[in-house]
Amino acid sequence: MFYVSYDGIDEPLGRSQVLAYLRRLAPRYDITLISFEKSVEVSGRLREELDAYGIEWAPLRYHRRPPVLSTLLDVLAGRRRLIEAARRGAPSVVHVRSDVPALMALLARKATGGKLLFDIRGFWADERVDGGLWRAGGFLYRIAKWCERAFFAEADAIVTLTEASVPQVRVWAGERPVPVEVIPTCVDLQRFSSRPERPEGPHVVWSGSIGTWYRFDLVARVAAALSLPLTVITRERELAQTTLDDYPAAVLTVGPEEVPGQLYSGDIGLCLIKSSFSKRASAPTRFAEYLATGMPVLVTRGVGDLESIVTEHGIGVVLAGEDDESIAAAAKRLRELAGEREVQARCRSVAYRLFDVEAGTERYAALYRRLSGE
Fold first, then answer.
1. Which residues in 191-282 belong to E strands, given as ranges?
2. Higher pLDDT, residue 212 or 84
3. What pTM was computed for the model?
4. Which of 129, 124, 86, 69 is nearest to 102 (CA)?
5. Rounded mean pLDDT of 112-133?
6. Do 213 and 274 meet the contact criterion of CB atoms below 8 Å apart?
7. Could you identify which of 58, 101, 213, 224 might form a hypothetical disulfide with 96, taking C-beta atoms 3.0 to 4.6 angstroms apart as the criterion?
C-alpha cells in the first residue's frame, strides 16, 4: 500500500493524522509512505522511528517558494517517487491525503495501478477561497476544481471527515456507486485522558493555529465574558500576542508531544472557525483533544458536525453570533455546563465514541480490505 501526504510527518498534523494511523496499520500491511518534509534535519530520527514500525519511508523536500510553481515541482517530484516505488512492487491501494497528493497519484496511475483512495480532508479548493488565499472564480480556483472533478471521477473510494459533507461529496462523485466513508480527525485518546483539573482553577483554552479560517479575534471577548484566565497554545505566538492586543493571557509554544500536558480537565476549550461552505467538511483536531481531556467546548455554527455533536450530547455551546449579547449568552451557558458534575465524563465518553484513533484505524483497514479484494 502506498500512502502520500503533502504534510510532513514531523509536523503536528503529520504525527496525529498520518503516523498515528500508519503505525497501527503497519503490522497488517506493507506500507510505503511518501511525505513532504519542511526540514531535512529530522530525517535521521524519523527514519529510525518509521523503520521500527516497519514503514518504508520515501521522503521528499517540501518547497514553499515561488508560489504555485513550487507546488507544481513538488507534484512532479511526487509523481516520480511513486513511479520509482512502483517499480519495486505495485501497490494494491494508493491512499492520497487531499488534493495535491491526489494529483501526483493521478499522473502516476498508469505506472502504479492499484485502487485510488481519495482522502479529501476538506473541500480544499473552496477552503482556499474562503480563507482569502485565492480569488473566487480565479484561474487557480478553476484549475483546482477541474483537477478535483478528475479525482472524484477516478477514486475507487472516498474518505471525508464529516457527515455534513457527504451530500456534496455524493454530488461531486456523480452517479458512480463509489463508497464514501466518514472518518473524522481521530486522536490517540490515551495521550489526553486522565488529565487532572488545573490546580489554580479552570482556564479558557485555545489550542492550535489561529490564522486564516479561525476566529481568534473573538477569544479575548469570550474569556472576558467568562471571567476566566486565558491560555493560548500555538506555534503562531507573535500573531497571537498581536491579536490579543495587551489582553492578559498565557501564550505558549510547545512541541506536539507536550500539548496533552498543557490541557486540563474542567477547562473550557474554544473551537471558533469561520462559517463557510468549505467548512462543512472540517473536523478540527483540537475539538477531539478538548473532549478527550474532559473540556466542554464553545464552537461556531456551520463547521462540519460540531454543532450537532455538542447539541446532541450536551458537551458544549454553539456561539449564535459575535455581538456582545450572543457572547454573553454563550458564556452564561458555558459556566452552567462547566458546573455540571457529569460534563467531564460526558466529554470523554463522546471522544471515545466518535474520535478514537483505534476505531478510525479499523475503518481504514476495512476500506483497504475492500479495495484490495481481501
1. 204-207, 230-233, 250-252, 268-271
2. 84
3. 0.94
4. 124
5. 95
6. yes
7. 101
pLDDT at 42 over 70: no
Q: Residue 97 is placed in which grid cell?
A: 491525503
In the chain, the amino acid numbered 294 is G
pLDDT at 249: 97
| CA–CA gap between residue 142 and residue 170 (Å, rounded) | 20
Per CATH, the number for 2-186+357-372 is: 3.40.50.2000
> Could you count the other beta carbons within 10 Å of the beta carbon of residue 85?
22
What is the average pLDDT across 156-170? 97
CATH topology of domain 189-354: Rossmann fold (3.40.50)
Domain 2-186+357-372 and domain 189-354 have a common topology: yes
Binned at pLDDT 50, 70 and 90, residue 40 comes out as low
DSSP 277: S
Q: Quick one: average pLDDT of 91-115? A: 96
> Domain extents for the chain?
2-186+357-372, 189-354
Cβ neighbours of residue 345 under 8 Å, at least 6 residues apart? Answer: 294
Q: Which of 54, 74, 58, 57 is nearest to 66 (CA)?
A: 74
Mean pLDDT for the chain? 95
List the alpha helices (DSSP H) in the chain.
Answer: 12-14, 20-25, 43-53, 69-87, 99-107, 109-112, 124-130, 139-154, 166-173, 219-226, 237-244, 259-262, 285-293, 306-313, 324-338, 343-354, 357-372
- Give the amino acid at 337: L
Q: Which residue has the cell 451530500?
A: 167
The per-residue pLDDT for range 171-198, each reduced to its tens digit, is: 999 988 899 999 999 999 999 988 999 9
